[in-house]
Amino acid sequence: MGILQGKKAVIFGVANEKSIAWAVAEAFKREGAELAFTYANETVAKRVIPLAESIGSTLILPCDVRSDDEVRDTFARIGEAWGGIDCLVHSIAFANREELKGSFLNTSREGFAMALDISAYSLIALVKEAMPLMKEGGSVMAMTYYGGQKVFPNYNVMGVAKAALEMSVRYLAETVGPEGVRVNAISAGPIKTLASAGVGGFNQIAGHVAEKAPLRRNITQEEVAGAALYLASDLSRGVTGEVHFVDCGYNIIG
Ligand code: 0WD
Questions:
Q1: Cβ neighbourhood burial of 97 (10 Å; 0-12, 13-18, 19+)
Q2: Atom of ligand 1 nearest to the CA of 92
Q3: Is 35 helix (H, G, I), strand (E, B) or coil?
Q4: How far is the CA of 92 from the centre of ligand 1 (A)?
Q5: CATH number of the domain where residue 113 is located
């Protein structure tokens, strides 16, 4: 029997088959979970719907996390279909491409607000709506990056958003802990995806990690999914408010 047998998980942030969220979904499915997916817009829907259907999901809903109404509707529909959920995966980030390169001083007020809204505030909005569906406790996880703790070239406003996301994980963990809901983050090393392709100098960063990380290589989506399985399952039932690095050990070096 799989370690997520009987559990229901909602996954935000599949954009294509390279997405971290997709590897998480495949691992959850393998371990027996039932899955719901969301997509931000019609362009993404064209890729997400066939992928989700390919692993037997029938709950595939539109949800742009900037909209409180869409977030509310999404959880209302999940509540109608399932009655409750056990796990919520937040694998979402966005910033203007031109603000993910060059000087941090070029961060605009609008760009800052949007990056923080989509990449950090959304976790609070999702957990708020998920709570009434997590009556028997649950596990929430978000994806973060070391650029939220240390300064990396070009990561700029996304680094600020990840710092906000990681602190939101801690405040949320404290807030929902009494209800038996755990909130953690996975800090993944660089992986080539749609999101990371938007960060200036991605190849140099990945190359540096491969040279300096204790394991002398970069990570894979499947390795993040392994940590996600642990966080979703009862194996981690005593763990909350943590930022768990899946980065071949890079964070102990630089
Ligand atoms: O190196 C990497 N790839 C790392 C990624 C290292 C460490 C952390 N992460 C994080 C990212 O910052 C993000 O939080 O992992 C998470 C997932 O990123 P990913 O798998 O690398 O990227 P991708 O496959 O592009 O998925 C992110 C998705 C969006 O994709 P697009 O490419 O369409 O922007 O986030 C979703 C969307 O599906 N997204 C939204 N979802 C709902 N509402 C929104 C929105 N407004 N905006 C973006």
A1: exposed
A2: 35
A3: strand
A4: 4
A5: 3.40.50.720
Q: Which residues line ligand 1 (CB under 6 A)?
A: 13, 15, 19-21, 40, 44, 64-66, 91-94, 118, 143-145, 188, 190-191, 193-196
The per-residue pLDDT for range 69-96, each reduced to its tens digit, is 999 999 999 999 999 999 999 999 999 9
**Is the ipTM beyond the 0.90 threshold?**
yes
What is the residue-wise DSSP string for 84-149?
A: --SEEEE------GGGSSS-GGG--HHHHHHHHIIIIIHHHHHHHHHGGG-TT-EEEEEEE-GGGT
Cβ-based neighbours of 164, under 8 Å, separated by 6 or more: 116, 119, 120, 121
- Which residue has its alpha carbon closest to ligand 1 atom 43? 64
Domain that holds residue 105: 8-247
Ligand 1 centroid to Cα of residue 1, in Å, is 31
Residue 244 bridge partners (DSSP):
186
Of 18-22, 126-130, 198-202, 234-238, the range with the lowest mean pLDDT is 198-202
The tokens for 200 are 């200036």
**141, β-bridge pairs:** 89, 184
57 located within any domain: yes
Nearest CA to ligand 1 atom 30: 15
Per the structure, the count of domains in the chain is 1
